[in-house]
From TrEMBL:
Signal peptide: none
Domain called Enoyl reductase (ER): residue spans: 135-444
Keywords for the protein's UniProt record, in alphabetical order: NADP, Oxidoreductase
Keyword Oxidoreductase included in the entry's annotation: yes
Molecular-function GO term, any one: mRNA 3'-UTR AU-rich region binding
GO CC aspect terms: cytosol
Enzyme Commission number, as recorded: 1.6.5.5
Gene3D superfamilies, per database record: Medium-chain alcohol dehydrogenases, catalytic domain (3.90.180.10), NAD(P)-binding Rossmann-like Domain (3.40.50.720)
InterPro entries registered for this protein in UniProt: ADH-like_C (IPR013149), ADH-like_N (IPR013154), ER (IPR020843), GroES-like_sf (IPR011032), NAD(P)-bd_dom_sf (IPR036291), QOR-like (IPR047618)
Keyword Oxidoreductase: yes
Name the UniProt record assigns to this protein: NADPH2:quinone reductase
């Protein structure tokens, strides 16, 4: 419902009466007007009182409502007497409105939504990152909802780690638009099976699992997914390793074995060889006895790529990639080039490929790919644009790639973890991913 606050814009306020619908968990907003010396309107106070809120005298410039959720307990007149009262738990406070502020005691933050619950209610709430519309990192917002039980054929996973990929950035920017908005993005995560829906026999509570691919929606603390899309994790593979490496490992499998059959003696060009996907491609290609030429942006990243097994490295964003590749291959060119950079780098990749070789475009971190003149494909070069999401739409192909990726993880072919952020700090994670500062994968931790 819309409420008018004096001195501020009208703000949508959660109907406090909805707090009564559950006796163990309630979601509310404790609001006072930022920068104003007047209290919220009487209508807000009346509505809050009906829901079991209790007004108290806070510092002189504001009035704060303190949630006193009865849950069958006797209401006491003094706020300090809480032996029989539920505990008020602020759970990952998140921004609700720029025009107001919230407070419990002396704690203040930019208009935050609070989950008021008794002990243990944290496990009953799901923190969800919503994308309001295509755009920059300001389009993210956070909400908390009660967890729904898994449906037929589903399991509920309590996420321990969530992987990020440039796919997420493309979806956030609208390069790969979502069907509707607001939307939840995120293509991979790992965690613990928290509940099992009807008809599921392959999993039980406590199993360690991971998943990747469509449908997206991993940017949340818990999630119900089809059981057939979950992969059991062996003891040697941690949740963080799986969340950072599953989708990238599946992509590497698609690129190295399905798009182009890399084998002993194949000469491979891998751009961003120190990155999350690049590091897996380098290691996996070397395990196949291929010869790997990698490109990196700095000497620090060159040292990392060399440690992954790259045979030769081209260092620097301004390096003449085509000339260097021709020099390193005796003027012939590589058999296959994997390009996740995009922009004008794709033409350089095509020109670095030998006759009847293949250039594979798998991303556009540097920007949109310009039109490619067909003359660039002479003599007999191939250009391929595979999609791991399209591949994974078929459940058989999905499990084939996922199990191959997990087997590689067991041998140590994983993506280095470059940074970790709290789930609530998803905007910072995207900012770092787009900056190119981090070598390796970036994780979100609920």
């Amino acid at each position: 419902m819309a409420m008018q606050f004096r001195g501020a814009a009208a703000t949508k306020l959660l109907d406090c009466r909805s707090l009564r619908r559950d006796k163990s968990c309630a979601l509310g907003n404790l609001l006072s007007v930022r920068g104003q010396h007047d209290a919220p309107s009487a209508a807000v106070y009346e509505l809050a009182t009906q829901a079991g809120f209790k007004r108290r005298n806070a510092p002189t410039d504001r009035r704060v409502f303190d949630a006193e959720l009865l849950c069958g307990a006797k209401q006491r007149s003094g706020l300090r007497e809480r032996q029989e009262m539920p505990k008020v738990v602020p759970v990952d406070l998140c921004e609700f409105s720029p025009n107001h502020c919230a407070a419990i005691g002396n704690f203040h933050t930019s208009c935050h939504r609070l989950v008021c619950a008794h002990e243990g209610a944290r496990e009953m709430t799901d923190q969800i990152i919503w994308l309001n519309a295509p755009g920059d990192i300001t389009q993210f917002h956070i909400e908390h909802h009660r967890c729904e039980p898994p449906g037929d054929g589903e399991i509920k996973i309590r996420h321990q780690a969530i992987g990020t990929n440039f796919l997420d950035v493309y979806q956030r920017r609208g390069i790969y638009p979502m069907p509707s908005y607001p939307a939840v993005i995120g293509a991979e995560a790992a965690g613990i099976v928290d509940d099992v829906g009807p008809g599921v026999s392959m999993f039980q509570k406590g199993d360690r699992v991971a998943y990747a691919g469509p449908p997206v929606g991993a940017y949340r603390s818990t999630r119900n997914i089809a059981a057939e899309r979950a992969i059991k994790l062996p003891g040697a593979v941690s949740a963080k390793t799986a969340a950072s490496s599953l989708l990238k490992g599946m992509t590497a499998y698609l690129l190295l074995k399905k798009t182009y059959d890399v084998r002993a003696g194949t000469q491979v060009l891998i751009h961003a060889a120190a990155g999350g996907l690049g590091s897996i491609l380098v290691r996996w290609a070397r395990s196949l006895d291929a010869t790997v030429i990698g490109t990196v942006g700095s000497s620090e990243k060159a040292a990392l790529a060399a440690s992954y097994g790259a045979d030769q490295l081209i260092v620097g964003r301004d390096a003449d990639i085509v000339a260097e590749v021709k020099r390193l291959t005796n003027g012939i060119g590589v058999d296959v080039a994997y390009d996740g950079i995009g922009g004008d780098t794709l033409l350089k990749s095509i020109r670095s490929v030998r006759p009847f070789g293949m250039a594979v475009t798998i991303g556009q971190a540097a920007g949109a790919i310009p039109p490619v003149p067909v003359e660039e494909l002479r003599p007999g070069k191939a250009l391929c644009h595979p999609s791991i999401m399209a591949w994974c739409a078929d459940i058989g192909q999905y499990r084939e790639a996922a199990l191959a990726a997990v087997r590689m993880m067991e041998t140590g072919i994983v993506s280095q973890i470059g940074a970790e952020y709290r789930l609530a700090d998803v905007a910072k994670a995207h900012e770092e991913m787009e900056s190119g500062r981090s070598a390796g994968s970036i994780l979100l931790i609920p």
